[in-house]
């Protein structure tokens, strides 16, 4: 196993994050307001999720 400098790893991560950000901006600019992928819709007619609501209530009680 090779030992790598944490500062170098952080620098590389920042470079990758910047490339991802640039690609995301490019993709959004090119696609405009096209179709969204399945599961990405923001539905206004969603029914509330009772199981999650009850879990939230349970968590607040603990």
From TrEMBL:
Q: Basic and acidic residues: which segments have biased composition? A: 8-20, 42-62
The record lists the organism as Paenibacillus helianthi
The name this protein carries in UniProt is YfhD family protein
- State the superkingdom: Bacteria
Q: Where is this region: Disordered?
A: 1-20, 30-62
